[in-house]
Design a protein that fits this description.
Blueprint (H helix, E strand, L loop, with lengths): L4 E5 L5 E6 H7 L3 E9 L4 E7 L10 E2 L2 E3 L7 H13 L5 E12 L5 E12 L11 E8 H10 L6 H14 L24
Length: 194
């Protein structure tokens, strides 16, 4: 994996420097991130299962896309870039909130992120990058929230923290969405139950 730089921030999300992504996670330093949630016209959430080769949280279910903005890149630019790169979806995004969390991960890494959360609406057929995503599904919101409660270890820590809040806020934005044709897909992967 190449050493990408991420943006270090203070508690108010002011830039205070740059550092390699892996080093930031090893040192547990606060850095900027974005999380994207896409919903379809059936009011289903598009979730993905992270590729088994990811440097942390491999094989866990999570939101549609997430990333760290590059130095000089805005959060909306990063969110749009990553939605296209990870899932092949280019759609308008709306920022709904931000939050900070710190959680120990696998591989002696820690997520300590000032996370900007975006939603979008699309019925486009996802075209995921297999290096990032091994499976995806459109799921009913109540179903995924129940699964998080039943088997939390199948989901990423950040997704567990915000899925319900995002879902509640997404409902407020549905009136601006024009429905198209609904599609879904599932990759043949072992132990893929959510």
């Amino acid at each position: 994996m190449k050493s990408e730089k991420v943006i270090l921030v203070d508690n108010d999300d002011n830039d205070i420097g740059e550092m390699g992504k892996i080093e930031v996670h090893r040192k547990a330093l606060l850095h900027r991130a974005v999380s994207v949630f896409i919903f379809n016209s059936k009011k289903q959430m598009l979730i993905q299962r992270r590729a088994l080769t990811k440097y942390h949280s491999p094989g866990l279910w999570t939101n549609t896309a997430c990333t760290h903005p590059y130095p000089g890149e805005t959060t909306i630019e990063a969110a749009s870039r990553r939605s296209e790169q990870e899932m092949g979806i280019d759609t308008d995004l709306i920022k709904i909130f931000d939050f900070t969390y710190k959680e120990r991960l696998d591989n002696n890494l820690t997520e300590y992120e000032f996370d900007h959360v975006f939603i979008g609406f699309s019925d486009k057929i996802p075209d995921p990058d297999p290096a990032e995503v091994c499976e995806f599904k459109y799921v009913d919101i109540d179903s995924v929230l129940n699964r998080i409660k039943e088997i939390p270890d199948n989901f990423t820590v950040w997704f567990r923290k915000i899925a319900e809040r995002v879902s509640n806020l997404a409902v407020l934005h549905y009136q601006s969405f024009e429905p198209n044709i609904i599609h879904g897909h599932s990759c043949p992967v072992k132990n893929s139950k959510i």
